[in-house]
Amino acid sequence: MGPTILVGLGGSGGWQALAWAVDEATATGGRLVICHAAAPDNPLALRVPTPPLAVLELFDPPLARAVASTRRRLGSDRVTLQVLPGRPGPLLASAAARADLVVIGSPARHRPGGYGSTAHHVAARAPGPLVVVRPITAGPDAPMLGHVVVGVDDSGDCDAALDFAFDWADRHRCVLAAVHVATQHREDYWFDQTTLSTHFSAMPAGLELLSGQVEPWMHKYPQVPVKCAVFGGRPVPGLMRAAHGARLLVVGDHGRGRLGPAGRIVLGSVAHGVLDHATGPVAVVRQAPRQGEPK
């Protein structure tokens, strides 16, 4: 049986998230749980969590059409609708514990630092991978166009992100680009592990780090074409430059649910930054805690 995919429908980018989640359920054979948060005074919130389509059509025709279309594509037995009263962030964060993957729309651009957005709330609390969907934009400078880009740092905590990225690239038949961002470099370099072609005049030190971290996954997924790249600058701008035009950007979350200002649970700084500034879909994958760390 395939994975359980939870998708938040409503708010900023909800319909794009649903389309992405349906494609993922199709590719994986998984089941889809559509979660819709209703205001307390919404008539749907006063009914059972899974209202029949006739009731949906009466109170929320667009939602009813979306559910009907999704069931036609995946089959009624693979699509569940949950209409629950409350705020989207807490509802999705709670439901995420019962899902293998959570998919939501992008955070509202007007929120400074993303605090208070559904995307940031869920990303800081979901125990599994979260995909935040926004349309892919690509200009003339898109070095990894159509690739899966995965960020790799020197922390040694990238296994979960690499596993997710390689598995996704394998399933969707994409080229994978493993990217390390180094502040000491001013230029960008990459090496194609499949064609053995280089795009630099001298071997940057970061490529050795990348090769060592990527090698086990290349053996596990030998059919996935791989590029290793070192981009110069600060982590978030470097990853944004690398992922411009990418089909998916995958980053690990090293925040580990730590508390920030005012007692908020916060993301790691890189995960937080890419959620705000990415130009396409982003997967945030939480690394399993080390021994002795809180889960």
UniProtKB/TrEMBL annotation:
Claim: Phosphoprotein is one of the keywords in the record: no
SUPFAM superfamilies membership: Adenine nucleotide alpha hydrolases-like
Annotated UspA domain residues: 4-134, 144-286
Gene3D superfamilies: HUPs
Pfam family, one: Usp
Alphabetical list of InterPro entries matching this protein: Rossmann-like_a/b/a_fold, Universal_stress_UspA, UspA
MF term (GO), any: ATP binding
ATP-binding found in the keyword field: yes
Keywords assigned by UniProt, alphabetized: ATP-binding, Nucleotide-binding
Family: Belongs to the universal stress protein A family.
Protein name according to UniProt: Universal stress protein UspA
